[in-house]
Amino acid sequence: LEIVNDYEFENSQFDGIFEGVKIKQIGISAFYYSLFNGALNLPVCELIKVGAFVSSNFSGSLNLPACTQIGEYAFLSSHFSGSLNLPVCTQIGAHAFERSNFSGSLNLPACTQIGDVAFYYSQFNGSLNLPVCTQIGASAFANSIFNGELNLPVCTQIGASAFGNSNFSGSLNLPVCTQ
Q: In which order are the strands placed within the sheet that holds 149-151?
């Protein structure tokens, strides 16, 4: 199985470790409203299409070491209590994590661009590290709640209302922001 087709595992439950060692692409709403009680490992997946994991719950870690792009609405209204690891992802699409909750860590060490409204109305209780992100779209984190750290050490461009109406009880680090 190299491609998870559109809606293929809609409303499914996975217990234990799900190993998708050959999966390169996840289709539209492929795991819509699914529950993962364990780790989801997709070592060669490069693309997550529109709405692939809408309204899904992850109690373990989600590992996507080869994924370079997260499509629009990919994780809309999802819940993460484990870690989400995207070590080579460079782009987060618009609305990708809108209305999502993170109680673990979100690691995006290669992400350079965050789309408009990408994390709109999201909640973070862990840390969000974006060490090479240079652009944040309009309303990207608007109306969000941060109880951990948000690190953007090289971000130079922030869109309109990117952090509008957000609440920070942790720390926000933007040392070189120019716009």
A: 18-19, 40-41, 62-63, 84-85, 106-107, 128-129, 149-151, 171-173
How much is the pTM? 0.90
pLDDT tens per residue, range 119-138: 999 998 877 878 899 999 99
Residue 179 is predicted with a pLDDT of 64
* Per-residue b or e along 138-177, where b marks 16 or more CB atoms closer than 10 Å to that residue's CB: bbbbbbbbbebbbbbeebeebbebbbeebebebeeebeee
The length of the chain in residues reads 179
Three-class secondary structure of residue 114 per DSSP: strand
Contact of 69 with 96, CB cutoff 8 Å: no
Cα separation of 69 and 89, whole Å? Answer: 5
The strand pairing partners of 85, in sequence order, are 63, 107
Count of other CB atoms within 10 angstroms of residue 50: 17
